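Hey, I'm writing a tutorial for new members on how sequence and structure tokens pair up, and I'd like a real worked example in the thread rather than a made-up one. If someone can provide the structure for the chain below, I'll link this post from the tutorial.
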Amino acid sequence: MNRSKAACKTYYETVRRSFRYTQPENSLRAEAAKNSARSRARRKRLLESRQSVLADEEVELWKSATVDLMSDEEDGVVGGVSGWIVRPPSFRRPDLSELCAKLQSRLEATPKYRATHGRRLHIGPASERTPPVTYNPEEANGQFTEL
């Protein structure tokens, strides 16, 4: 009985949120929520892809990697060519950034990955995202740099 009650609550909240976002006064908020969800999904896929090409000696450092530490990848055009504009988070540790770059180059060397993913055109300026709100320094394992 608890599962069906939880499912009903979740469905109700989804319908309610959808209705709220269809209201004209909430159009900007709806667009922001949609873009945020899209970016988070991209970062999650990026984390999972990079994890698939880890070497044994890199596993320990990678344990500190989270979705929030992955780069923002936005659709864009550079020199008339469309693809991804990559913006790493400013709060990611340099050694984790180096590992991400290594893993990304391994991924791009894989024909299957190249065939199914857009081109990374340009490394842009650091992302303006702030560290996660749920950030707890004791649990962070040193994954963030001090700003």
